[in-house]
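SEQUENCE AND FOLD
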Amino acid sequence: MRTRGLRRLVAGISFVAVAIFAATGAGAQVPTLQEQLAAQYKVAKMGSDTSGYSVVEEGTLLAVQKGGLIGIPYKDTGLSTNKYEGGVVHAPSQMAQKGFGMLKKKFGQDEPTTKLFAKGDKVYPTKLEVNVDKDTVTMGIVSCDTCNKVDPTTYNKAQIVFQFPKGSLAKASAAQVEDTIGTLLTVSDDQQQAGGAQQGGDQGSQQAAAPQGGQNQDQAAQTQAEQAAPEPASVEVGMTPAQVEAALGKPDKKVTLPTKVTYYYKDMKVIFKDGKVADVQ
């Protein structure tokens, strides 16, 4: 009976432990691929006024690594969707572009002006969407006209569908996806240098503040030294010879008489009676 009860107790404890472990594991949330990529590629925000569109909040600056991407001015409605698969850019077909132009004419709008992005052009991401079921990562981009020295500005835009092999995106890490995107759009050196300049500025500020910080450290060290300085040795009536020696050290001279013992120091003498300090002169 006792053995059976012990087994039930152990089984109960094991069940509770497994339940707690499962609950803890369920509560821990791992960032999704969408969230990880969004942290790597900060999207830019566009705004407009009477003068037209412009970038109101910069994103991660990217550099185009391969030619072939086709875009349209940001003011135009619609999208210019490019596909990137197997390291090759597949721009919108001429038929698709022509059909889009005819559609615009039907509604009384001007036929769109297309832009062929060149290798080295700087762009910002404007959106990022991950579709695991379709094995695609879709990124919207807009040109950084100030970086590319384009005047007048048009802020050409494009959409790129990165097509991954079937069933691979569900197993891919963020780093692997970034490597694929990086063969077409890599983080610009200007972006990296800007980050380095920011770090250098922070270091310069710290160095500029160093003299004042050094003075503060000297003052703090002096205060600590003053606080750490030992208190003057003191001798009190009733102390034993051992206690006096611990406080003042060995005497310069010691005189022992039948009724008393006297310790002579440089500027005082300590008189013991019955093994304890009786007087200090």
About this structure: The chain has a mean pLDDT of 80. Residues 35 and 203 are 31 Å apart (CA to CA). The first strand starts at residue 45 and ends at 49.
